[in-house]
Amino acid sequence: MAIKAYKPNTNAQRGMTTQDFDGITTKKPLKSLTVIKKGSVGRNNQGRITTRHRSAGARKYYRMVNFSLPAGTSAKVEHIEYDPNRSARIARIVDEQGNYHYILAAKGMKPGRKIVAAEEGAITVGNRLQLKNIPNGTVLHAVELQPGKGAQLARSAGTGVQLVAKEGDWAQLRLPSGEVRLVHVDCMASIGAIGNEQHQNIQWGKAGRTRHRGIRPTVHGKAMNPADHPMGGGEGKTGPGRIPRTPWGQVAIGLKTRKRKTTSKFIVRTRHQAKRRK
């Protein structure tokens, strides 16, 4: 995917870029695989804001992506589609029984390609296999963390994890952050990296495009009044003068928030250790 620049007809369009949709082969999604998406706009079931700076954004339907394509499935890619709910492209596939599915589109996937989901098979882009039958060094996406639970790792545009080694019942995967993690060899993974890798280089250009994405304006805490934020107030452009905090007084930077210590045993090398080694 390439990046297209707008002509600077207005000040807002100067420097603005957008995605190249040449790889998309159809405009309308399959009606049977779409549902109405009602935005929560950052509120919980009591109506209280739990995530700030969220709005409804542009209206869109949710595409029901199949993250756990069952083993024994053989299908053909019909179309590559745009998904407004994620950064990656999705592929519409039809299996031998005539059932349609949406899956994440890998880099280089095009209509007409045949893919299989099985315990073992050919190491080609799009095929979904068990980790124990994939050679070391292969780049993967849509990786399961628990057998049969469905893909949880490497699902956004341009991402991919590398199978580093296998020992016994466990495989070592290197994540994009540099972290090396253990995953059971019976877990399924798709071959190749996710497409649409230039998504992160888009320049949104103006506030309106960001509002369409469902993101409201954000204000620095030090720009507020002391009654509105712990870091507010001060004469002129002063720094926080204290540890950066949230509007509710919680430490914002440097506080360790990892609470699920039970999964720490699966991390061979953290992303921080990987950065220090570089």
Describe this structure in words.
The chain has two domains: 3-199, Nucleic acid-binding proteins (OB fold (Dihydrolipoamide Acetyltransferase, E2P), Beta Barrel); 219-278, Ribosomal protein L2, domain 3 (Irregular). The chain has two helices and 17 strands. The longest helix is centred in the last third of the chain and has 7 residues, at 271-277. The mean pLDDT is 91. Strand 5 and strand 6 (90-95) form a beta hairpin. The protein is mainly beta.
Summarize the structure.
This protein has 278 residues and is mainly beta. The protein has helices at 207-212, 271-277, and strands spanning 3-5, 17-19, 34-36, 61-63, 73-81, 90-95, 100-104, 114-117, 128-130, 139-141, 143-144, 151-153, 161-167, 170-174, 180-184, 188-191, 267-269.
What is the C-alpha radius of gyration, as a whole number of Å? Answer: 22 Å
Q: State the helix count.
A: 2
Give the full name of the CATH homologous superfamily of the largest domain. Nucleic acid-binding proteins
Runs with pLDDT <50, length 5+?
none
The shape is globular
Question: How many strands, what sense, and barrel or not for the largest sheet?
Answer: 7 strands, antiparallel
